[in-house]
Amino acid sequence: MLELDLEVVRDGFALEVQLSLGPGPTALVGPNGAGKSTLLRAILGAVPVRRGRIVLDGHVLLDTDRGISVPTEERRVAWVPQEYALFPHLTVQENVAFGVPGPAGHARADALIGQLGLEALRSRRPGALSGGERQKVALARALATEPRALLLDEPLAALDADTREATRTLLAESLHRLAIPSMVVTHEMRDVLALQGSVVLLEGGRVRSTGTLDLFRAAPPSEFARSLVTRAIGSV
Question: Which domain range does residue 115 map to?
Fold first, then answer.
Protein backbone atom coordinates (compact mmCIF):
# COMPACT_ATOMS: atom_id res chain seq x y z
CA MET A 1 0.00 0.00 0.00
CA LEU A 2 1.25 3.48 -0.93
CA GLU A 3 -0.37 6.27 1.10
CA LEU A 4 0.13 9.89 0.04
CA ASP A 5 -0.81 13.20 1.62
CA LEU A 6 1.35 15.83 -0.07
CA GLU A 7 1.62 19.52 -0.75
CA VAL A 8 4.29 20.66 -3.19
CA VAL A 9 4.83 24.24 -4.36
CA ARG A 10 7.19 24.86 -7.30
CA ASP A 11 7.53 28.01 -9.39
CA GLY A 12 4.13 29.25 -8.29
CA PHE A 13 2.39 25.91 -8.98
CA ALA A 14 0.70 24.15 -6.05
CA LEU A 15 0.13 20.39 -5.98
CA GLU A 16 -2.06 18.89 -3.25
CA VAL A 17 -2.70 15.15 -3.37
CA GLN A 18 -4.29 12.65 -1.00
CA LEU A 19 -4.27 9.07 -2.32
CA SER A 20 -4.05 5.45 -1.23
CA LEU A 21 -2.81 3.00 -3.85
CA GLY A 22 -2.97 -0.76 -3.50
CA PRO A 23 -0.95 -3.40 -5.38
CA GLY A 24 -1.08 -3.34 -9.17
CA PRO A 25 -1.07 -0.59 -11.79
CA THR A 26 -2.70 2.81 -11.43
CA ALA A 27 -3.01 5.02 -14.51
CA LEU A 28 -2.32 8.67 -13.70
CA VAL A 29 -3.97 10.86 -16.33
CA GLY A 30 -4.49 14.58 -16.74
CA PRO A 31 -3.74 17.49 -19.06
CA ASN A 32 -0.26 18.95 -19.51
CA GLY A 33 0.73 20.97 -16.47
CA ALA A 34 -1.58 19.08 -14.11
CA GLY A 35 1.32 18.03 -11.88
CA LYS A 36 1.67 14.37 -12.86
CA SER A 37 5.46 14.28 -13.20
CA THR A 38 5.83 16.49 -10.12
CA LEU A 39 3.83 13.96 -8.12
CA LEU A 40 6.10 11.12 -9.23
CA ARG A 41 9.20 13.10 -8.35
CA ALA A 42 7.78 13.97 -4.93
CA ILE A 43 7.18 10.29 -4.17
CA LEU A 44 10.69 9.51 -5.36
CA GLY A 45 12.15 12.24 -3.16
CA ALA A 46 13.49 14.28 -6.06
CA VAL A 47 11.54 17.49 -5.32
CA PRO A 48 10.99 19.15 -1.94
CA VAL A 49 7.62 18.69 -0.26
CA ARG A 50 6.26 21.65 1.68
CA ARG A 51 3.97 19.53 3.83
CA GLY A 52 3.04 15.92 3.82
CA ARG A 53 3.46 12.28 4.54
CA ILE A 54 4.36 9.25 2.43
CA VAL A 55 3.96 5.73 3.80
CA LEU A 56 4.88 2.65 1.76
CA ASP A 57 4.01 -0.79 3.12
CA GLY A 58 4.02 0.61 6.63
CA HIS A 59 7.40 2.34 6.21
CA VAL A 60 7.32 6.11 6.66
CA LEU A 61 9.30 7.64 3.80
CA LEU A 62 8.31 11.22 4.55
CA ASP A 63 6.68 13.01 7.44
CA THR A 64 7.31 16.73 7.48
CA ASP A 65 5.71 17.15 10.92
CA ARG A 66 8.20 14.70 12.41
CA GLY A 67 11.16 15.80 10.33
CA ILE A 68 11.45 12.45 8.54
CA SER A 69 12.67 12.32 4.94
CA VAL A 70 14.20 9.05 3.78
CA PRO A 71 16.83 9.63 1.04
CA THR A 72 15.78 8.73 -2.49
CA GLU A 73 18.23 5.83 -2.75
CA GLU A 74 16.80 4.24 0.41
CA ARG A 75 13.09 4.51 -0.43
CA ARG A 76 12.98 1.37 -2.60
CA VAL A 77 10.89 3.26 -5.12
CA ALA A 78 11.95 2.64 -8.73
CA TRP A 79 11.46 5.18 -11.49
CA VAL A 80 11.31 4.73 -15.27
CA PRO A 81 11.53 8.16 -16.94
CA GLN A 82 10.08 8.89 -20.37
CA GLU A 83 13.53 9.05 -21.99
CA TYR A 84 14.60 5.81 -20.16
CA ALA A 85 17.97 7.32 -19.03
CA LEU A 86 20.00 4.24 -19.94
CA PHE A 87 23.78 4.45 -19.72
CA PRO A 88 24.96 4.62 -23.35
CA HIS A 89 28.39 3.12 -22.64
CA LEU A 90 27.00 0.04 -20.85
CA THR A 91 25.56 -3.12 -22.36
CA VAL A 92 22.01 -4.31 -21.73
CA GLN A 93 23.33 -6.73 -19.10
CA GLU A 94 25.34 -3.98 -17.38
CA ASN A 95 22.46 -1.49 -17.47
CA VAL A 96 20.03 -3.93 -15.89
CA ALA A 97 22.50 -4.97 -13.17
CA PHE A 98 23.70 -1.42 -12.46
CA GLY A 99 21.58 -0.77 -9.36
CA VAL A 100 22.48 -4.07 -7.70
CA PRO A 101 26.25 -4.67 -7.82
CA GLY A 102 27.90 -8.02 -7.30
CA PRO A 103 26.67 -11.57 -7.96
CA ALA A 104 23.12 -10.76 -6.81
CA GLY A 105 22.85 -8.03 -9.41
CA HIS A 106 24.03 -10.28 -12.21
CA ALA A 107 21.63 -13.05 -11.14
CA ARG A 108 18.64 -10.69 -11.09
CA ALA A 109 19.70 -9.17 -14.40
CA ASP A 110 19.88 -12.61 -16.01
CA ALA A 111 16.42 -13.54 -14.71
CA LEU A 112 14.81 -10.30 -15.90
CA ILE A 113 16.54 -10.39 -19.27
CA GLY A 114 15.00 -13.82 -19.76
CA GLN A 115 11.53 -12.78 -18.59
CA LEU A 116 11.43 -9.76 -20.91
CA GLY A 117 12.84 -11.56 -23.95
CA LEU A 118 16.13 -9.66 -24.09
CA GLU A 119 18.53 -12.63 -24.25
CA ALA A 120 19.75 -11.91 -27.76
CA LEU A 121 20.43 -8.27 -26.84
CA ARG A 122 22.35 -8.65 -23.58
CA SER A 123 25.71 -7.57 -25.06
CA ARG A 124 24.33 -4.62 -27.08
CA ARG A 125 24.47 -0.99 -26.03
CA PRO A 126 21.39 1.28 -25.98
CA GLY A 127 22.33 2.99 -29.24
CA ALA A 128 21.84 -0.31 -31.06
CA LEU A 129 18.36 -0.94 -29.62
CA SER A 130 14.90 0.00 -30.86
CA GLY A 131 12.59 2.16 -28.77
CA GLY A 132 10.64 -0.84 -27.54
CA GLU A 133 13.83 -2.68 -26.62
CA ARG A 134 15.12 0.33 -24.67
CA GLN A 135 11.82 0.50 -22.80
CA LYS A 136 12.16 -3.15 -21.80
CA VAL A 137 15.72 -2.58 -20.59
CA ALA A 138 14.64 0.43 -18.52
CA LEU A 139 11.85 -1.63 -16.95
CA ALA A 140 14.23 -4.51 -16.22
CA ARG A 141 16.74 -2.14 -14.61
CA ALA A 142 14.01 -0.73 -12.36
CA LEU A 143 12.78 -4.17 -11.35
CA ALA A 144 16.28 -5.45 -10.59
CA THR A 145 16.35 -3.34 -7.44
CA GLU A 146 13.30 -5.24 -6.12
CA PRO A 147 11.34 -2.05 -5.40
CA ARG A 148 8.34 -1.72 -3.12
CA ALA A 149 6.73 0.70 -5.61
CA LEU A 150 7.27 1.58 -9.26
CA LEU A 151 6.76 4.94 -10.99
CA LEU A 152 6.65 5.20 -14.79
CA ASP A 153 6.49 8.60 -16.51
CA GLU A 154 4.90 8.13 -19.95
CA PRO A 155 6.97 4.98 -20.60
CA LEU A 156 5.38 4.36 -24.01
CA ALA A 157 5.22 7.91 -25.36
CA ALA A 158 8.36 7.69 -27.51
CA LEU A 159 7.34 4.48 -29.28
CA ASP A 160 5.81 4.17 -32.72
CA ALA A 161 2.23 2.87 -32.94
CA ASP A 162 3.05 -0.78 -33.69
CA THR A 163 5.76 -1.02 -31.04
CA ARG A 164 3.57 0.74 -28.50
CA GLU A 165 0.75 -1.75 -29.03
CA ALA A 166 2.99 -4.74 -28.31
CA THR A 167 4.91 -3.11 -25.48
CA ARG A 168 1.84 -1.90 -23.56
CA THR A 169 0.67 -5.52 -23.29
CA LEU A 170 4.03 -6.62 -21.90
CA LEU A 171 4.05 -3.69 -19.48
CA ALA A 172 0.56 -4.45 -18.19
CA GLU A 173 1.38 -8.13 -17.67
CA SER A 174 4.60 -7.24 -15.84
CA LEU A 175 2.90 -4.77 -13.49
CA HIS A 176 0.12 -7.17 -12.55
CA ARG A 177 2.64 -9.94 -11.94
CA LEU A 178 4.71 -7.67 -9.66
CA ALA A 179 1.75 -6.94 -7.36
CA ILE A 180 3.29 -3.76 -5.96
CA PRO A 181 1.86 -0.22 -6.21
CA SER A 182 2.72 1.03 -9.71
CA MET A 183 1.81 4.48 -11.02
CA VAL A 184 1.89 4.99 -14.79
CA VAL A 185 1.58 8.49 -16.28
CA THR A 186 -0.08 8.41 -19.71
CA HIS A 187 -2.08 10.57 -22.11
CA GLU A 188 -3.50 7.59 -24.01
CA MET A 189 -6.75 5.88 -23.09
CA ARG A 190 -5.54 2.74 -24.88
CA ASP A 191 -2.73 2.52 -22.33
CA VAL A 192 -5.29 2.86 -19.54
CA LEU A 193 -7.43 0.11 -21.10
CA ALA A 194 -4.43 -2.22 -21.37
CA LEU A 195 -3.32 -1.65 -17.77
CA GLN A 196 -6.73 -2.73 -16.41
CA GLY A 197 -6.04 -1.04 -13.09
CA SER A 198 -7.41 1.93 -11.21
CA VAL A 199 -7.48 5.43 -12.72
CA VAL A 200 -6.54 8.72 -11.06
CA LEU A 201 -7.37 11.99 -12.83
CA LEU A 202 -5.18 14.95 -11.85
CA GLU A 203 -6.16 18.44 -12.96
CA GLY A 204 -4.76 21.75 -11.76
CA GLY A 205 -2.65 20.10 -9.10
CA ARG A 206 -5.65 18.35 -7.50
CA VAL A 207 -7.08 14.85 -7.71
CA ARG A 208 -10.32 15.26 -9.63
CA SER A 209 -11.38 11.62 -9.68
CA THR A 210 -10.26 8.15 -8.60
CA GLY A 211 -11.91 4.85 -9.38
CA THR A 212 -12.25 1.91 -11.69
CA LEU A 213 -11.82 2.00 -15.43
CA ASP A 214 -15.50 1.11 -15.97
CA LEU A 215 -16.65 4.12 -13.93
CA PHE A 216 -14.18 6.36 -15.73
CA ARG A 217 -15.51 5.27 -19.13
CA ALA A 218 -19.18 5.33 -18.13
CA ALA A 219 -19.11 8.81 -16.62
CA PRO A 220 -16.00 10.79 -17.57
CA PRO A 221 -15.51 13.31 -14.73
CA SER A 222 -14.24 16.17 -16.93
CA GLU A 223 -13.90 17.31 -20.53
CA PHE A 224 -10.30 16.11 -20.53
CA ALA A 225 -11.43 12.65 -19.42
CA ARG A 226 -14.17 12.63 -22.05
CA SER A 227 -11.65 13.50 -24.76
CA LEU A 228 -9.46 10.54 -23.72
CA VAL A 229 -12.36 8.13 -23.98
CA THR A 230 -13.58 9.61 -27.25
CA ARG A 231 -10.17 9.31 -28.93
CA ALA A 232 -9.86 5.67 -27.88
CA ILE A 233 -13.31 4.15 -28.38
CA GLY A 234 -15.50 6.73 -30.06
CA SER A 235 -18.04 9.24 -28.84
CA VAL A 236 -19.65 8.71 -25.40
Answer: 87-146
